Write a sequence for this structure.
């Protein structure tokens, strides 16, 4: 019995002795030493199957089993799950960070959507990330005509279909394509604002263009736009006969119209007026004075109008 006990004791002592003895201790990962005597150094602390970068592996966070080279990246959370070098902030890879992380990409699931992208009106999508369906370069919330919208000048935020029109400045603020010199839209343009080609109305139109006539009251489409067409004598005429009459031709006759004549010192010349068609004629009671300058003044709904002439100096 004793001899057997001695034998067992010897065998146990032999198993724990010699140069191969290992005293288990707390394992220190990544140092190349097997402190816990399990046969290997710990290089994968979180047990996700990927060695840590500290041990030459690819796991950028060996404390989190959800982080490693084979993990699925979760965008915009500030964590680099797949260890590619940073959080995913441009999920659609269009070169623009998502708005969720302070970027400018309004739809980071669609590579066609990014600031400045082509944007066609009517698809209910804001590809250009300007807040509207279509391209709105000036930020007035109206898409440009070029992209299918209604903004006739996408470089000017003051020009769009809801803008207030400023008349006679040559700019179509409300994009209605109407004549900028015809506020009452009666086909007549106000005197003193002669439009040029490009202002969408023309006093001297080419073939195929709409002709606009003068307008003396551009706030009332029903107002009589009765502009003058000619005077006789013409303004600053000289050599007029002393027996001449003075006349004004209008677009239409006006019974209340009048013509008066005054000499160089302002003295009124007596005479009578009468209409012949649309021409109002003043006939002096006496012949005019040779060499005298006179001023004719006409009054009518679109007047007044004054013009000067000089009578011939001799017979």
């Amino acid at each position: 019995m004793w001899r057997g006990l001695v034998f067992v004791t010897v065998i146990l002592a032999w198993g724990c002795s010699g140069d191969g003895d290992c005293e288990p201790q707390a394992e220190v990962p990544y140092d190349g030493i097997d402190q816990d005597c399990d046969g290997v150094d710990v290089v994968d602390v979180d047990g996700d199957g990927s060695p840590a970068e500290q041990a030459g592996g690819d796991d950028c966070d060996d404390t989190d089993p959800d982080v490693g080279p084979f993990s699925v990246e979760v965008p915009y959370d500030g964590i680099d799950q797949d260890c590619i070098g940073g959080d995913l902030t441009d999920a659609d890879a269009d070169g623009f960070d998502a708005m969720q992380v302070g970027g400018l990409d309004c739809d980071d699931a669609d590579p066609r959507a990014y600031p400045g992208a082509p944007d066609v009106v009517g698809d209910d999508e804001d590809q250009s990330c300007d807040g509207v369906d279509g391209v709105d370069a000036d930020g007035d919330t109206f898409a440009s005509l070029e992209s299918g919208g209604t903004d006739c000048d996408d470089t000017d935020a003051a020009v769009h279909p809801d803008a207030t029109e400023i008349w006679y400045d040559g700019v179509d603020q409300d994009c209605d394509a109407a004549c900028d010199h015809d506020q009452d839209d009666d086909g007549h343009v106000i005197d003193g604002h002669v439009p040029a080609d490009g202002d969408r109305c023309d006093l001297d139109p080419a073939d195929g263009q709409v002709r606009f006539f003068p307008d003396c009251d551009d706030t009332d489409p029903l107002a009589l736009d009765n502009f003058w067409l000619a005077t006789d004598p013409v303004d600053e005429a000289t050599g007029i006969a002393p027996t001449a009459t003075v006349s004004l031709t209008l677009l239409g006759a006006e019974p209340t119209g009048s013509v008066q004549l005054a000499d160089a010192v302002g003295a009124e010349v007596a005479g009578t007026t009468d209409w012949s068609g649309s021409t109002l004629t003043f006939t002096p009671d006496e012949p005019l004075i040779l060499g005298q300058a006179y001023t004719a003044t006409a009054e009518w709904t679109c007047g007044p109008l004054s013009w000067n002439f000089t009578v011939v100096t001799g017979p």
User: Anything to note?
Assistant: Helices lie at 2-15. The two ends are 176 Å apart (CA to CA). The longest helix spans residues 2-15. The longest strand covers residues 293-299.
